[in-house]
Amino acid sequence: MKKYLQDYALLLGVAGVVVFLDQWSKTWVRNTLAIGEVWMPWEWLRPYARVFHTTNTGVAFGMFQGANVVLMVLAVAVSVAIFVYFPRVPRNDWTLRLAMCLQLGGALGNLIDRFIQGYVTDFISVGKFAVFNLADSAITIGVFVLLLGVWLQERQERRRLRVERAAELENGGG
Predict the structure, then answer these.
(1) Which of 20, 38, 50, 150 sits at 20 to 30 Å (Cα–Cα) from 9?
(2) Does 122 participate in catalysis according to the annotation?
(3) Would you call 113 a catalytic residue per the annotation?
């Protein structure tokens, strides 16, 4: 039981920080800027980054607009799956555990928006890239951390196999 409490404390702690920062930043944007308004603390930064208040009923890059209900169901399903699977992830697999924490926080942050407002508040605009928010960033970083973990595990496994093969050859094996 203690193991589950420690696992869930980590999961809910990291995801909770993501949700808090995401919701706080979105609330600031909604209370400060009208939809479509841009805020620039430094004009020279305008071509590279700006705060641009917009809404989104779809997913990244404006895909699946109007699919709010489907996306809410998907976010709930992913969140439940992460919550159920998380304690089964080995504690030394920090990349998968961190990835799941970030993805849960991101999924819940956008789910809160969809449930309360019927859309997601987006506001981070970088160059000509799609406008996004902190929840989207957490999900994306979680995917990159997951990919990094897979790459590191594959490297470690190849190294282990090379060492085993060298030991076999040294001992006169095949």
Answers:
(1) 150
(2) yes
(3) no
